[in-house]
Amino acid sequence: MNQSQVNSIPAAFVELARSQASKCAVSYLGSNYSYGELDQLSGRFAAGLAARGVSPGSRVVIYMPNSVQWVVAWLGVLRAGCVAVPITPIYTPFDLAYIANDTQAEAVVCADRNYGYVTRVLESTKLKFVVPSGLADLLPAHKRLFGWVFDKVPKGRIARTEHTVPIRDLISAASGAAPVPSAEPGQVAEILYTGGTTKHPKGVPITHDLLMGCAREQLAYSAAAIPPADNVILGTAPVFHVLGQTCGLGTLFTHGGTIILQPRVNLDAMLDAVQRMGGRTLIGVPALYRMILEHDRLEQYDLSTLDYCFSGGDVMPLEVARRWERRFGKQIYNGYGATETVGGVGLNPAGRKTPPGCMGVVLESKDVKVVDPYSLAEVPYGKPGELLVHSQPMVSAYWNKPEETAKSFVDLDGRLYYRTGDIVAMDENKHLYFVDRTMDTIKHKGYRVSATEIEATLQEHPAVIEACVVGLPDEKVGERIKAFVVLKKDIKGITGYDLIQWCRKRLVSYKLPQYIEFRDMLPKSKVGKLLRREIRAEEAERREG
After folding, report:
1. Distance (Å, rounded) from C-alpha 138 to C-alpha 16?
2. Mind listing the pLDDT tens digit for each residue in 383-402?
3. Distance between CA atoms of 42 and 76, rounded to whole angstroms?
4. Is the dihedral of CA 263, 104, 190, 130 positive or negative?
5. What is the largest CA-CA distance in the chain?
6. Number of domains in the chain
7. Within-domain flag for 415
8. What is the domain range of residue 511?
9. Which neighbouring-strand residues pair with 417?
10. String of b and e for 287-319 (b: at least 16 CB within 10 Å)?
11. Bond preceding residue 89 cis, omega within 30 of 0
């Protein structure tokens, strides 16, 4: 069967696995896992879920870092006919409880170090089944023993309860692999959560056909440099993020390549993996490329096999791109996308020189408009405006968020478009250039951070009456987060440190403000709306002055 005709992700993966069972699918912490092994592990994981009453259609949260067990769990959840809900492993219990309730999830697969967080939310959610996993649980026995004897593997404590079954037990107890399900047209495979302009993250439901089509298209942009089936992809981007899925994980169910995974970014381990495995593709945010260029031991590694270096998640500084090309003689290919567009809207294909500052050429699958953000009238080529994106098929609504859907999706000329909120310019050749982003979205270390969410968290503090959060340009991390706070008049002794500690208990680390400035009042419009643009203008004047 032609891969383009397969109607579900697990069916596409199994077809590849049966045709190339011995080929390496995933390399993780120095151990290689073949397509055949991954097929067996994910099939037994799916059977284990079904044996414990997790029925098709149920939502299952995946709360782990990049690892082979993440891949096994994700493929297994889909093979069980369930809907995967991948989230970052650094989410707090507040975030976990919100997402579990928003999706009405029944089960969670978590890192053992997150097990304590999971137990804290069981009573307030519908979660009834927990599958914890240590980082080394699916490694060969000798590596697990070495890690245990020399205490080399971080681990957390888990309880032996009726609702808790460790991943090794779940897989080993299964009597056989689950059958491979088909998917109805438009059937949801997963729900990815994204930040943006709201207090809580928004769920983006992504169908099997949409994810397969987007991954196939985006991975093909490196085909001029690397035959897709021969690709060895260093997946530094998290696989719970759309960038890591469409440009890395997707090779497992589209082209049959290999992906290298690590639980966290370790430059020496990453560069060694490229050298040892003959890595062909590197995926990363701009900050990663800067870190590599500034790494003290870079000269010790041979990175000559890298043929396609891709950057997404944020704007690539020209200085970093030029340094990389001088150092390695190879271009960094930029891309632009969003969770709502299932990754790429614009990509720079391998082998084609693109203009400086270009963040991608519009993909063939995408129809875009650059419009005045108020009138929605199209602007001329070269003029800045808000980017709107249509595709067929496409995400058409947020999960359980009709008001946010109405704000972010608009019907124009009989077509549904997603409003990115980003201000871009497009030339006649459909090259996209980033100009600015919406006032209430901050790009920090490749993450889209909601200023509104941080403001709401600060305003929940009993001493705070108002808060305004903005992003300050920073060449290393994109933008740093600064909060402007107004305290109640009768409050004394509250410091910036106190407020950051308050946020630390409620927000993931990448959302924490780095700076707190106290003010007597904040600028507002005549109708009382907070004017972030005036705060940003003041900060710009400070930097220039």
Report:
1. 22
2. 989 999 999 999 999 999 99
3. 4
4. positive
5. 72
6. 2
7. no
8. 441-544
9. 410
10. bbbbbbeeeeeeeebebeebbbbbbbbbbbbee
11. no
